[in-house]
Amino acid sequence: MTLNKLNNWLLPVLLIMSTSTLFSQEIWKVKQLTNQAKNHAMDNNQNFSPDDAWIVYDTRPNEGGIGENAIIEKINVASGNTKVVYKTKNANEYGPGVGAVSYHPTENELVFIHGLPPASKDKPYAMHRRVGRIVNESNNSSYWMDSRDIIAPYTAGALRGGTHRHQWSGDGDWLGYTYNDAIMVELEEKTGETYNLRTVGVSKRNKKSPEITSGQGENFQGEWYSVLVVKVVANPKPGSDEISKAYSDWWVGNNGYQKPDGSWQRARAFLGDLVTKDGKKLTEVFIVDVPEDLDVEGPEGPLAGTSTAMPMPPAGAITRRVTFTEEEKYPGVTTEFRHWVSSSMDGALLSYLAKDENGIDQVFLISVNGGQPKQVSFHSTPVQSTVRWNPKTREFAYVCDNQVYVNTVDKKGNAGEAFAISPKFETKPYAINYSNTGKKIAFNKDVEGYAQIFVAERP
Fold this sequence. Notes:
By secondary structure, this protein is mainly beta. It has two helices and 29 strands. A four-stranded antiparallel β-sheet has the order 1-29-28-27. A four-stranded antiparallel β-sheet has the order 5-6-7-8, with no helix packed on it. The radius of gyration is 22 Å and the shape is globular. The relative contact order is 0.12.
């Protein structure tokens, strides 16, 4: 089917509804927004502009091709007009590379991965060679978000490697991300032992790291203060909650979560790899409380790290395991494909994918304060995507059987009946995300070899 024919077919789509689910289904209009012969990768980010007028994306040549991409672009949802937001200088096959862009929730600001410039065969784009770049559309300016310092003695408030998939907090004053450390990569190459471990970090606006020296082009002065918040170890003690990898992280709620004592706490949820008491790798859901003051050294060691150890979390960055699934028929969180733990807008619930009693990947919810997980999807085929939450209500969306589904959860944590808001496509939708009003859901889908953007609009 050609792009034009497919576009005409989808404007609008009236879903065929069975009589058994007619009462709960809504008719959503689905349109293909992009059709140029190039990729439009949204990458599971916050892609709608604050006024929902634009959707931002990168044009990487393939899924892992951020290093080869030079352009951040956006498209107007109503008109289809496109605009280049940022373009790297001196781009080549080795980088610098830009991608994984996200919009600020209320301001005309964007953040994205930016490889270290200049890039060459000897100094290419890599997981440990990238920083965050922020573009302010209101005044047409841009700057480095996180500071980078790889010259010992290292600097507290700066990092020594690469930050990735930057996510704004609900108030827009914090950014969370995953991280790989350049010093540990070098140490691993020298020793042959495991040091290159992924973990989770955060950065705070209105607080700057101390001045960074030039470092022969490897160091960068950022405008935000940055720390790692989760300690990782190469060989977790079996049966303990020690983590060898922290990843697929998400801000908890628009404003954090409410503790049992009634107080509110800023936090990030994430997936963590540990080792069971019988020596098997297991992935579980964790949460880390993020302190308001990031510059106070914690008990694990220096914020800046050392030549043989990662930067350590600040005081008050307390990690807590949320799921305990060792005894389940299919223990752990789904890891067969990449997905993120995510949070309801009120910070009460965490969502993730795990196998049900039949070995099928389903959506599970658990209270942010712990307890028993609750299965809330019951499909005969596996759920295929990260769960995304409506920013205004306890509604969530996901992909199953090549369709986009929506469901709701009441105050007691009970889910309603899921219903499809899109037709069943020949190829899987992915990278779904809600608009800021919750009235639209955008998603990527491959069409004739290119990642295109589709938008489903609530009636």
